[in-house]
Specification:
four-stranded parallel beta sheet; about 25% strand; mainly beta; disordered N terminus; 1 helix; six-stranded mixed beta sheet; single chain; about 290 residues
């Protein structure tokens, strides 16, 4: 049987799961300030989901896991601490926490799961620590982020991780990134500049589509593939430099609709190479790349 406690804002419904003490079943409580007692190790799946009353949550140092959807849809939540001993935050844990303004990612995590902070549209700043190796799909999608710096410890970023961050003005990508995954920065309408890491070989489908503030961009030497609608409706993109790697003798593969809606685009490339031929076949202006 669960053990419920509630006094002076301290509340938990506790039960044993995998030898842990877990908080669950708090979606309907009407307390603004929640203090989870020391000794609690996990916030269970959907524990506070869609609770619109809770504003502040204090977690104990004993917390190790926050399970999926634990705080999803808590639209009044403005503050929550994430202790460094926390080593797992499940998918969608804070999705649609629209009043949450600041979050500090703990040093015990190695992955930011799918949709964890999606639609937290008031979060403007996030510090991604050097222990993070993997950023999941739509992890920060539709947030209010203004700038992001991704450390070089990150070895994988999944599709749409920062999609629809419409206030995002700058992002520093990790140097060891090998591809811009599908929809990575789709609809990042305020993004004014971007440095693509040197070893990126693929620009995925919709990776930079609808980035309407981008005016120029240089692709690294190793890009071999540009996907469908990769730059769709980048209406102010006027200059795109595409060096074409020669040593290996490969040709660039570009989807026919990669630049759909880029009406004033000029591609700077090597004459007679595959990019140049693609541009001429699709009516895109070119300039010769000076080696």
């Amino acid at each position: 049987m669960p053990n419920k406690t509630s006094q002076d804002g301290v509340l938990a419904e506790m039960y044993s799961l995998r030898t842990e003490t877990v908080v669950a079943g708090c979606s309907s409580i009407e307390i603004e300030d929640i203090i989870i007692p020391e000794g609690i190790e996990a916030i269970g799946e959907c524990a506070f989901r869609k609770n619109t009353v809770v504003k502040r949550v204090q977690l104990p140092q004993s917390i190790r896991h926050i399970e999926h959807h634990a705080f999803a849809g808590c639209t009044s939540l403005t503050e929550i601490n994430l202790p460094d001993g926390l080593n797992e935050i499940g998918p969608c844990a804070f999705q649609e926490c629209s009043s949450l303004r600041e979050i500090s990612i703990p040093s015990g995590l190695s992955k930011i799961e799918d949709h964890v902070f999606a639609n937290c549209d008031n979060i403007q700043h996030i510090n991604i620590p050097h222990n993070i190796e993997h950023i999941g799909s739509d992890a920060f999608g539709s947030t209010g982020l203004l700038s992001v710096e991704i450390p070089d410890t990150v070895i994988q970023i999944d599709g749409g991780a920062f999609a629809a961050c419409k206030k995002l003005q700058s992002i520093s990508l990790n140097r060891n990134l090998k591809e811009l995954p599908e929809g990575l920065l789709d609809f990042c309408e305020s993004l004014e500049s971007l440095v693509i890491p040197p070893f990126v070989s693929r620009i995925g489908d919709l990776a930079l589509s609808h980035c309407t503030s981008l005016t120029s961009l240089v692709l690294p030497n190793y890009v071999r593939y540009i996907g469908q609608w990769a730059f769709k409706d980048c209406k102010n993109l006027k200059r795109l430099v595409i060096p074409e790697y020669r040593e290996g003798g490969w040709f660039m593969e570009i989807a026919d609709d990669a630049f759909e809606g880029c009406e004033d685009l000029t591609i700077v490339c090597t004459p007679t190479m595959s990019v140049d031929m693609f541009a001429k076949e699709h009516g895109i202006k070119t300039e010769p790349l000076l080696q």
